[in-house]
Amino acid sequence: MSASGTEHVVTRSIEIVMEPGGRRIRTARGALVVDAIRQAGVDMETPCDGRGRCYRCAIEASGALSPLSEIEEEARRLGLMGAGQRLACQVRSVGPTKIRVPEFALTGIAQIMADGTQIGHYSFEPNVRRVLLRLVPPSVSDDVADRERLERALADAGIRARCTLPILANLGQKLRGLQFHCAALLVGEEIIDIEAPDAAPVCGIAFDIGTTTVVAYLLDLLTGHELAVVSALNPQSRFGSDVISRITFAAEQSEGLRVLARTVRTLMNDLIKKACTKAKVGAQRIYEVSVVGNAAMQHLLLAIDPRSLALAPYVPTTTGSLNLRAASLGLNVHPNGGLFILPGLGGFVGADTMGVILATRFHVGQGAALAIDIGTNTEIVGREPDSGRLIALSTPAGPAFEGGRITSGCRGMIGAIQRVRLIDGKVGVETIGNANPVGICGSGLIDALAVMRQLGLLAASGRVLQGAEFLLVKEDRQQRKLGVTQKDVRELQLAKAAIATGIKMVLNEIGIAEKDLREILLAGAFGNFIDRANAQSIGLLPGIAIEKVRQVGNAAGQGAKLALVSKAARVEAEKVAREVRVLNLAQQAKFQDVFLESMAFN
Amino acid sequence: MSASGTEHVVTRSIEIVMEPGGRRIRTARGALVVDAIRQAGVDMETPCDGRGRCYRCAIEASGALSPLSEIEEEARRLGLMGAGQRLACQVRSVGPTKIRVPEFALTGIAQIMADGTQIGHYSFEPNVRRVLLRLVPPSVSDDVADRERLERALADAGIRARCTLPILANLGQKLRGLQFHCAALLVGEEIIDIEAPDAAPVCGIAFDIGTTTVVAYLLDLLTGHELAVVSALNPQSRFGSDVISRITFAAEQSEGLRVLARTVRTLMNDLIKKACTKAKVGAQRIYEVSVVGNAAMQHLLLAIDPRSLALAPYVPTTTGSLNLRAASLGLNVHPNGGLFILPGLGGFVGADTMGVILATRFHVGQGAALAIDIGTNTEIVGREPDSGRLIALSTPAGPAFEGGRITSGCRGMIGAIQRVRLIDGKVGVETIGNANPVGICGSGLIDALAVMRQLGLLAASGRVLQGAEFLLVKEDRQQRKLGVTQKDVRELQLAKAAIATGIKMVLNEIGIAEKDLREILLAGAFGNFIDRANAQSIGLLPGIAIEKVRQVGNAAGQGAKLALVSKAARVEAEKVAREVRVLNLAQQAKFQDVFLESMAFN
Q1: In chain A, which residues have their Cβ closer than 8 Å to the Cβ of B302?
Q2: What are B309-319's pLDDT values in tens digits?
Q3: DSSP secondary structure letters along B125-158
Q4: Rounded to an integer, what is the distance from CA B383 to the centroid of its chain?
Q5: Beta carbons of B72 and B66 less than 8 angstroms apart
Q6: A139 close contact with B: CB closer than 8 A
Q7: Cα separation, B354 vs B380, whole angstroms
Q8: Handedness of CA B183, B185, B190, B192 (dihedral sign)
Q9: Domains of chain B, with CATH numbers?
Q10: pTM assigned to the model
Q11: Can you tell me the ipTM of this complex?
């Protein structure tokens, strides 16, 4: 390790711009550049411990820098360091500086980029920070109190932060135990812990709490690495599979709300434990939790009475973001850890949709476009071609595309029929995990409808033309037939019509025709797996060129991750929350007409 | 009641200056003046419910006002309203306005002015606010969430505030139950409760936690009225009568710190209960608690390890202010109530001294002066004549002036000899409550020394010249003699010398002679009761003209009250904390010499 941390005697801070990416680091004037880079959360290897012997930390640097050190002059003489290069362990920033760090050191945010999302566009600047400090120990001539000494040292490094009560309890002994050479852990502007300078890692965990599935992502907040992903079904399902039945349970059962809150909080603790075991990290090293979820999931998690969500005019108690303590929900992370709830857009367009917008940067894109997150409630966001303004709505598609109320329907589980194709005129199926078929999941159902239409077995009206059922599997292991019945087609028709109606309403509102759409983004697990062409052929999606329909994966979860690693993304979220207009589908005059029109298969 | 609260559709805020006092009220443009006055916490009587029939709310008003209403025109015609007057229930402010409210309505801060303190100079602007809101209920065309609706309405009235998690739990039902016509309770920028618009009162409680005595003041934060004062001995005394022995107990006994914290918190809850019973107020109506105390009392209250306070270089863990939740210390007030700990100046010059400075406005006064709070630790603050800068130190006087280690010594209790006088050459005593004498308290001891000197019974060196004891009471009810022995004189000499040394050190530091002092302020119960001339005659206080020595009462407690009723006072406190220079007595080169010199009685 090189000499690191900021001496509290330095009283001015300066800015270093780090390329590629343009990240801005605030640090004490005169700080070693390698320390500034590390303080920004980039782990730079210095095998020689900063003694200027390995030349591994050569970077491009310009601006207000200290003069070449003897070591650097020698390195340049020996040709080990190019013109314009400096050794990060030798050079100090004395004013505005620009540096370019070699790619290998740039672990940051690029590591959690995934799928079609554009996370790399946000600056890596977690709300959780770890700041190395070498404090001057108190003496008779400098008897400033410990807390004020700490806060002053941070202020000198350009960081505004204050101690929380829990860390004051034994701050004095901790600082003395570490000889006043320590790392301060910050969540936002709160100092939540003091630890040894080399304690690691510093983690955060992002939750995507879906009505059906909960996913957790454990991230290293110093490097941006994703350490583990774990998921589980939302155990609230046993109190109701959809949002409305859970709200009813909360409203009508004694302690119903508490039970639902406790259920999901317990699951979150299970997932925290699992993720930590997987990554071999102590849960105490998690300093912040972020959460996306629809409004109902958010209310139930926070134990907020959800009744108003289920009664006209369907107004949630809160849609805005919340900065809380993880302990206030009983989450087993660092005892003073933070909890950030992403803002939503309205009662039916929640923080999950916000996650999709953030992760796809839909709000800064150009041209007419749709972002669709298909689910029991399907959220559709449209972008106006000229103004770039966003309009969102939610349409109640029901559970058909998740296999609900479908005779042979099932979720996207092992053995689910996820593909149905015509191969040489014969119907072939493909199951998840190539396992024995157990049912048909949403993408399989869409394929089945498309194949039925291709084979002339299904009228545009939705009538099944030959026989009562389109058989896919004659007999599964439970000796059941797997197929699509007339009743199933009617359920799917209703779901499809709800989604298609929502799309048409949004297109109508932004004033463009289907053909003028520059792109459609499909978010969520379901959207990620469907056959886009088949979805178009049954009228679920607008019939634009297939390459314009992009599947962007679990963008909602990406949004939760973004909130952990980028404060800028949080600021964007607040901006989006203010600017997106949410339509109330039921308020739309033509709703009934469009819905009925949308029932037909073309 | 008149129509009150702010409609959330009003989007601009304006300022009303209210005389006498010059208080500034921010309110929504177009708001009724009576509502603005109430919002500012002044309870104005309107017996006719704002229907313009009683003319009781006539005020002087000028500036940007709505035109005369029909009712006002009639009032003027009938001579019920003078020129320049308006009816507060009729007139609306549409821009900057100046009003003068009749004295009877001005209950505010003047009510808690006391003793020699100058609380009236601060603006009445409690950190706890109660804002009346008439929200537009949500509808299909305005489906903003409840929390955002509430925060928006406050923002429209120029108030930035956010909901806390606990109130979200049933915010929806509360607002609906009140038909969206409610009062929002704010602590700082946090909305901590929603209640009926006419719920009352809104209270705060201020604590002065002394090493020996704890005093609590219950205040009505809408009017500034003091509703109750209660006090009790600090029960931590049973773990040690002075600060050092309590710190030792905390450090050496298992759970010692917890026991001490629990002890004082329990007492605070007892005092809260007593004060509420006395004032017939529910403890849930207390929305904020403020606390002054010396650094050790503060550490023990907050369960912060106090060991560093007792070991060189005697550095506390924290001296700055803290904004906490009352529930974090288990205080039984409103469950979301706030807790404000006033900032101190250093390890031995705590928030109690800050209270003295604030309450006496010592920091903005003119000319050379001292403020002295005599106690086991005696704090002395000096003001430089030209710069106005403050210098503070603490001197360990010991418990002699509180009756400790004195043969017949006692605290200022019923029966304590508080005055000793020569009447016609004979020694006469006066006890507290004119009760049978039980001992001699500090003011009596000072008098006794002065009388002994007058009678020629005491040499300047401190030697008792006739007999072993100066007898005051031959036999009390327990058949004991009460008097002052040679040993007692030595104890008192040490205490006096410590204080006199501190005074000399401060005077030396601010570079003036005793005679140039413009005033000396004596704070604290003891300072309030001593005979100033006798204190001067034994060399405890500088011998300046007696009228320049002012006794200002429990100024520390006044400081705690101030923090409750005036945010401006808190800002001042932070400023004072940054600016006062604290001297370390032991660091002063001449300390030993001056101390030895100060032993003699002139």
Answers
A1: 165, 168-169
A2: 988 888 999 99
A3: B-SEEEEEEEPPPPBTTB---HHHHHHHHHHHTT
A4: 21
A5: no
A6: yes
A7: 11
A8: negative
A9: 6-107 (3.10.20.30), 119-195 (3.10.20.880), 203-341 (3.30.420.480), 362-602 (no CATH)
A10: 0.78
A11: 0.77
